[in-house]
Known about the structure:
Elements: E1 2-6, H1 9-26, E2 31-34, H2 41-53, E3 62-65, E4 67-69, H3 80-92, E5 99-100, H4 109-122, E6 128-131, E7 153-156, H5 159-165, E8 179-182, H6 185-188, E9 193-198, H7 204-212, E10 230-235, H8 245-253
Parallel strand pairs: 1-10, 2-3, 2-6, 3-5, 6-9, 9-10
Antiparallel strand pairs: 4-8, 7-8
Amino acid sequence: MEVVIVPDAKSGGELIAEAMAQLLRRKPEALLGVATGSTPLPIYQALTAKVRSGAVDTSRARIAQLDEYVGLPAEHPESYRSVLRREVLEPLGIGMDAFMGPDGTAEDVQAACEAYDAALAGAGGVDLQLLGIGTDGHIGFNEPCSSLASRTRIKTLTEQTRVDNARFFDGDISQVPHHVITQGIGTILEARHLVLLATGLGKADAVAATVEGPVAAVCPASALQLHPHATVVVDEGAASKLKLADYFRHTYVNKPEWQGI
């Protein structure tokens, strides 16, 4: 596992955006797995700046969704499809015809989950999957004790997650769906490159468990240790509980041939 410690979220976003740009220069039609939330915004902003400056062309890129609310219409402003359209597709100049996501309004949700897994495989698989991490070590909506072999499936949101997400629904928790579709850990691990960005002291325990702890279902993100190409990018706050932090700093700065990750 590559662990890169950066000064702040902006630096992490620029580093990851450059890795994505390099991928797109090699493979213009790459399938990029994206996540919602505030953590990846610096990545999208940095990549958008590269597109606008002509440093990279995203016109042939494809986008795959990590998770989606169940029962929320696709056109709802807080559906993850809508959020990604605003924050990723439109700024990068990518049309909805290049977007893949699970159908959260399907009558048969389980069938929709299986269809999404099949669609990802049929598209050749995800080339680079962006991930955030929860304070409890969850990735996507794979909460602690999720199976490390799990596939895309329906999950029930915890009450705390619904409370946290109520801010996106004018503070009204009654408007927050109770269920989501999420790529399973097994599905996530099939991407060719996993890139996790974590920032802030609040993520320090989860990052330490992910990088230095045992592979265990209690910390779903620890499954990244099983992946042949996983990169964890953290700021100083998120890295503050890593026992090998100094080693990771030394390893990165002594690899000048790295233009990205």
